[in-house]
Amino acid sequence: MASDLPMGPQLEQIHGEIRDNFRALANGFQKLDKIKDSNRQSKQLEELTGRMRECKRLVKEFDRELKDEEGRNPPEVNKQLNDEKQSMIKELNSYVALRKTYMTTLGNKRVELFDMGAGVSEPTADDNVQVASAMSNQELINAGTTTMNETDQAIERTKKVVENTIEVGTTTAVTLKGQTEQMGRIVNELDTINFSIKKASQLVKEIGRQVATDKCIMLFLFLIVCGVVAIIIVKIVNPGNKNVRDIPGLAPPAPSRRLLWAAEHFD
């Protein structure tokens, strides 16, 4: 029996706590079979998962204490204690596998895998959970080779992603540079257009002022023409009106008429 094993006080206490947690796990899974509600089953599985984490921590402590006492115990005692440790690891792994079965039944595909630590327990993604300390050298080499191959493939995928990212970044930089140059040309064209608009506005103002001046001159000339026409009409209607002066070029000067009249009488 495990309780009859020769252990130190600390090791015996840890061993007792592990066994208490195993009994709680066994009772918990028995209750889980009687629960019909999926939400309550999930909650119960969460509590059992916490128990398994605690067992994992205690098994690690048991392994450390066992290594500390290994030099003080006879070889047969160390063998019995190591066998007990392996037995506890296998029992814990059986609960881990049982939990996985229940999680699959509940439709949860994300199964939590426990990392039990080097030399204690190392659950994998396979259905048959193995412990690193229980694996042979060839199995460890194969597992390590598989992990290295998977890591190399992941690194290659990461390299490709980085290369694609750099390529996209370079293309984006070239595009941004072209757009920046295009924006610069647009700004220069806008400045030219603005200058042209200002010059056109000044030219329109000058034309407006010139047109206004021309209108004033035309109006003044129109008034002069009207005045001349009015004088001509008055002269024609009333030639004896002395208040209207002769327009230069329209009638001969008065002295010339008097001289002509005097010459006629003299003859």
TrEMBL record:
Keywords: Coiled coil, Membrane, Protein transport, Transmembrane, Transmembrane helix, Transport. Residues 145-207 form the T-SNARE coiled-coil homology domain. Residues 45-98 form a coiled coil. Gene3D superfamilies: 1.20.5.110. The keyword Nucleotide-binding does not apply. It is found in: Membrane. The chain crosses the membrane at residues 217-237. GO terms for cellular component: endoplasmic reticulum membrane; ER to Golgi transport vesicle membrane; Golgi apparatus; late endosome membrane; SNARE complex. The keyword Coiled coil applies. It is a single-pass type IV membrane protein. One of its GO terms (molecular function) is SNARE binding. GO terms for biological process: protein transport; vesicle fusion. Belongs to the novel plant SNARE family. PANTHER family: T-SNARE COILED-COIL HOMOLOGY DOMAIN-CONTAINING PROTEIN (PTHR21230:SF79), VESICLE TRANSPORT V-SNARE PROTEIN VTI1-RELATED (PTHR21230). This is t-SNARE coiled-coil homology domain-containing protein. It comes from Carpinus fangiana.
